Amino acid sequence: MSVWVLATDPDQLEPLVAAGRQAGVEVAVVAVGSRELAEAAAVSGADQVRWIQTHDAVPPEAYAPQVAALARGAGAGARVWLAGNAPAARALLGAAAVAAGAALVGGGLSLAFEGGVVVLDRVILAGAVIETLEAAGKLAVIWESSGAGDAVGGAVGGAVGVPIEEVLAAAAPGAGAGGPAPWDMRREATQVAATAAGLADAPRVVGVGRGLRSRADLVVVEELARALGAEIACSMPLADDLHWFPEERYIGRSGQKIAPRVYLALGIAGEPQHMEGVRNAKVVAAVNNDPGATVFRHATYGIVGDLYEVAPALTRALEHN
Amino acid sequence: MRTIVVYKWARAAASAVVRQGGQVDWGGARLAAGEDDPAALAVAQALATQSGDVAGLTIGDGETAWALARGADAAHAVPALGPLTDNAATAKALASAVRQIAASQAVDVVVIGDATADPGVAAALAAELGWPALLGVTSAAPAGDRVTAARRVGNAIETVSLPTPAVLAVAAVGEEARAPGMMELIKARKKPVAQLTVEAPAEGVSQRATRLPAAAGARLFEGDADTAAQALVAALRGDGLL
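^ inputs. structure came back:
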């Protein structure tokens, strides 16, 4: 019984290796990327590391045929495959799941083995519910990245490095060096997306959502941002639909991803699409008049109340201290 | 390019009612257009602009005219297939339908929404078809017999060229620009929808239980607005964050 972890980025290693460790079985990592990624995997607490070296101009998902071959070969004994939520990692996990004949689900939070059955807790309905699934056969899981629910975390302390086994020679497209050829995929360009001045590095950010009723009311948010020394950002509809903000002020899965020390969410429901953009914030504080709003599951601090009353009160509290 | 767009292949989370004990009641909710479906259709149409066409593919009992009302040239439905928990099983069924459509004329690209609730379907669909996949795509254009697709990686925009046939999973960057009007819907409902049959795939997972998450993560400050605001500011100061 073993858990195989697919990683395309060092940030994915810790929660996935920890999940396998907590299930009490052997953990193998398949690192698809640079040598630095493989070296990070070697000290991640995994028992084995296999490395598929990627070419600079080739995205990781081009190596899906290699991952599939591994799932049919050395990884054929793996009972569970895990990957993070990044697009490249998911693409590779899909290839592994189909090659292994595994079931595939998202939202993974914790994993256990009960006799011959794999038991998985996962989030569904944007974190509103924890679902427990059973799998009698192989299972592939995309791990939850937003910290919702009872997510497993924690560093694997004191990990001793393990040897890195390079599965295939560097296989540039068409090189045909061992194993199946990767897909002929090429990165043609990478450009920095437009970012709002100061937002990316701001220590404090006030995010505003549809709880704000009109554009004229933005003055309430601006006064609070001034008192807090914060940049202002927004949820997708306020930029895309209402055009109250330029596109580069929108936070979310397909917008800006920020890591402020404080993110104050005003009138934001907390959809996963939005919260993915602030999952690296140190503290999220939320103001929402719906006590059941999803944002409170992601927040450290919260106030259930009308933002039209709470935002000015916060401004006063900040100015009088 | 001949493109298939997969639409209305899952239930909308908003249709679910969560009971006090954590039970989920879908109340017979039909499959609905996902938040990424309009963006997926827009990408499919962009790929077919110069030449080719867009065929819609939907499963379940939802309104099949959705894609036709938005300009798709044809629509195919697998009505007998319900929502599945196992993304690999969903992908297997979709792949079977794509193969049936491609039997009469080769398909260059399958476009599908990169749904947060079912994040494995697109990749497993590509693997079932034996095609490359690119996920998190925001736009795409044909480039000879290849596709050039853009996606956001961190705070950068990456442009990737990939061979066809391929699967693209599209993440919406905005809401649907313009929904069709009633006349377009009525006209679309009169168009034929090809009915397909696929073998119901076996699911590799079963539900044991559902529950509510542990108490909400947030420490809530109560009282009137000023009292709660002062407590929040004090907490942030106490954490050294202000």
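Chain B has six helices and 15 strands. Chain B touches chain A through 83 residues (CB under 8 Å).
thumbs up if we can close this ticket
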